[in-house]
Amino acid sequence: MKITDIKVRSFSHMSRQNNDSDGHSHPCDPRQVRQSMLTIVTDDGTEGHCFAPSEVVRPHLINGFARDVLLGEDPYDREKLWQGLAHWQRGGNGQLSDRTLAVVELALWDLTGRKLGILVYKLIGAYRNKVLAYGSTMCGDEVFGGLSSPEDYARYAEVLVKRGYKAIKLHTWMKPVSFAPDPRMDVKACAAVRVAVGADFPLMLDAYHGYSRSKALWLGLELQKLGYTWFEEMMNEASMSSYVWLAENLTMPIIGPETADGKFHTCAEWIKSGACDITRTGVRDIGGIGPSMKIIHLAGASGMNCEVHGSGPGNLTLCAAQKNGTWVERGLLHPFIEYDEVPEYLNAQADAMDADGYVHMPQIPGLGDDINFDYIDNNLV
Amino acid sequence: MKITDIKVRSFSHMSRQNNDSDGHSHPCDPRQVRQSMLTIVTDDGTEGHCFAPSEVVRPHLINGFARDVLLGEDPYDREKLWQGLAHWQRGGNGQLSDRTLAVVELALWDLTGRKLGILVYKLIGAYRNKVLAYGSTMCGDEVFGGLSSPEDYARYAEVLVKRGYKAIKLHTWMKPVSFAPDPRMDVKACAAVRVAVGADFPLMLDAYHGYSRSKALWLGLELQKLGYTWFEEMMNEASMSSYVWLAENLTMPIIGPETADGKFHTCAEWIKSGACDITRTGVRDIGGIGPSMKIIHLAGASGMNCEVHGSGPGNLTLCAAQKNGTWVERGLLHPFIEYDEVPEYLNAQADAMDADGYVHMPQIPGLGDDINFDYIDNNLV
Questions:
Q1: Which end of chain A has fewer beta carbons closer than 10 Å to its terminal beta carbon, N or C?
Q2: Contact A76 B293 (CB under 8 A)
Q3: ipTM of this predicted structure
C-alpha cells in the first residue's frame, strides 16, 4: 500500500465562537467560519482524515513538506514518516509547526484504522473503554451572565455538576479583559466555585500564563488552601527553572509542560529537573499520537501521571490507551454555548458524555470521527 | 472479540546447544530438547503464538495468572491486560517473571497481527524494513578450535566478516571456565579480534557480569584504546552507582541496564543518573514489546540510543519500529553451530541475514514467525 495523494478540503460551517485579540475563544452570534479537512489517499483507495484549522494545512505546508515526505510511501511507516517531517522543522524554516505535524500523523492513524477496520486506541493497545471527563471552561469575559465574575463561575459550576461532570477546570481572566490578569480575582473565582461544588469535588486552575514567580506562588498557596487538584501554566513555560522553584515551594501538584517547544525532549528535562508533578501532552501540541504516547510513557516510567490536553478524537485516543492518567478534557465550555450540539460536519459527537461524567469511546473504525462527507462536499469554499 | 482459551503445547526438537552450570549456552552433540509454544485463542478462532522455554509457561503460571487475567477479555486491550498481569508480580508471589509476561504479551501482539493481516512492526508504526545485525558470540569455552583462546576469537571473527556481518560482539570467558573471569584475557581476545577485523569495524564487549569497579575501569580503559563501540554489563547492575562512577571515568559508551529488575522505571533512573550512555531493552527482559517501546521512547527523549537485547521476532520488531538504535543482535554464534539452519519447528528463519549484514523483516502477518504447526503437533511431549 502506497500513499498516492494528500488532499485538503476547506468548507464553511456555522460557529458560535470567536477569538479575542489574545487568541482565547468566547461565545458570539452565529457566523460562518472556515474549517479544513486533510485527507491522505492510498493506491487501494483507502483514505484517512483529520480536521484542522485552515492555517495549519496551508498549501505551502502540504505541497512543500507533507507531499514530499509522504507520497509513494507505506502509510504504516509512521515513525519513519513522522521523523521525516519533524526533520524539516529545524531552524523554523517554512513554519512547519507541531500542529501541522499532528494533522498529518493523525490522518495516518485514521487511515490505518479504517484500512484494518479497527479503532486506533485498540491498535495502540487499549487500557480502558470510557474516560472520566473534566469540564473545561472558556477563559473569563466581561459579558453579564457569562463568565464575568466569581458568581458567574460558581453558578456555571452548578450547571456542569447537574450535567454530570465529576471534575471542573477553570480558565480564568486573561488579557484583553480589562481587569486581567489579577491573581486576587483568580482566587475569588476558585473560592466561589469551591463553595458551589463542595469540599471533595476535583477542581483545577489554568490561570494567566505569564505571572511572575511571586504572584504564581501567592496564587498557588491560596489554591492549596482551597484543595485544588492541579495548578497549570501560570508562568511562561520557557523558563523551566521557574517551575522547579515553584514546585519546591508548593505541596500541590503542578502540571506541565503544555505549550513549551521541544516535544518529548522538553518533557524529559522537566521530569529530570522536578519542574512538574504531573506531565501534560496533547496531540496538537507536540505533533500527534505517537509522540504523545512517548510522553505518557516517559511520565509512567518515573511514576508520574500525564493528563492529556485538549479535546477531539486524537486526545481521547491517548486517554483510552494510558493507565497513568485520569481525565479527558471536555470543552471549552461556556454558559452561552451548547457543547453537546453536533457540528454540521459530523454525524455524531466525538466525545459524547453520559450522565455519570464518562466519555465512551466511539465505535467508528479509525480515530472515531463520524464524518458527514456530504455536508463537507456541499459546503466547499 | 474475546479471549476464550490459553493453551501451552510442549514439543521436542533437536538441539546442538547445552547450558553450563552458570546458564551460558555452548555447543554439544545433537540431543532432543523440550520447547513450548503458548497460544491465545479468541471466540472467532483467531490464534496468537509465542515460543517459550517450558519453565516460563508452567501450568501454575498460565492457570494461576494468565487465564485469570485474560479469559473473557478483548485481546486488543493490551495495556489493560499487561498491567493486570504485572500487578501480580508485586512481592514475587508465584514467580510470575518478566519472561512469562513477555510470552503472553507477544502472543497478544501476534494474535492482533494475524487477525488484522499485518506485521506487528507495521502496526506499531514502522521506521525501517531492514536492520543491520551484529554477530553475537557465545561465551568463551575451553574447547579446542571453539572459543577457547584469543586466537580462536580472531579466527572466528574473520569467518563472521566473510558471512557478511558488519559488527561483532564478544561474550568472553565466564565461570565455570577454569581461567575465568580475567580482564587480562578479555583484553587479549578483544585485541586479537581488533587486529583481525581492522581499525574501523564496530566491536562490542559483553564481559563477565560481576567485575569490581577497579577491574571494570581497567578493562574499560583498554577497550577505549582498542576503539570498542560499547562496554556491556561488566558489573552487577543492581549497583547503579557503580555504573555512574564508571561512566564518569570512561569516555567510551556504557550500555545498560539489561538484567536489572524494575523494567522502564529502572531505565528512567539510569538515564536520570547518567549511569549509561546507551540504554538497553529486550522483550524477554522487561515483559514484552509494549514496555520495551516505552524504554526506547525514554531513551530517545533524552537523546540516547537504545540497542535491543536478544534475537527472535519480538526483538526484531522493536528494531524495525525504532529510530534511535542501530543494530539487531544475531546469535548466539559459535564456530561449531550452524546458526542459519532453520529449526524443525519453523518453516523459515525469523532473522535471515543477507550478504551485506542486513536482517530483512519477515512478511508473515503477526510477529513474523513462519511456524511449522505439523512438526509441533507430531512431536508433542
A1: C
A2: no
A3: 0.90
